[in-house]
Specification:
Radius of gyration: 29 Å
Strand content: under 5%
Shape: flat
Distance between the termini: 75 Å
Helix content: over 70%
Length: 132
Amino acid sequence: MPRTRTTVVSLVAVGTLFGAAGAATADDPQPTPSGAPTGDGASALCKRAPKIDHRIDRILARLHADASQRGSIARLEQRVANAKSAGHTEIETYLNDRLTFRRSLVPTLEARQKDLADVEKWCKAHDNGAEG
């Protein structure tokens, strides 16, 4: 009996201790580790610009490829045509929606590519964003 009472008292004490510690930490809001941005991140963008440009080139090349390339618009158009000829209207509708989205990517990516070219020019003129 005394051993059980000691165990129960110990568990209650530990629970109370952890409960108090949890309440103390809940009262103090944790500050955000990084806070609000202080700059525009120009140097980081200048550093990443060539990789971003390469990635956009690669994606556009895939989108404009022929039907043998996975992820191309032509391949998805072929799949839509196959679904239509097979009479699978639900599949055709689903693939057509994907095709619409994929076609909308092309002008978006081309605009980003143009904007990125302007960023790269700016980076060259401003010491890769090191100037303030």
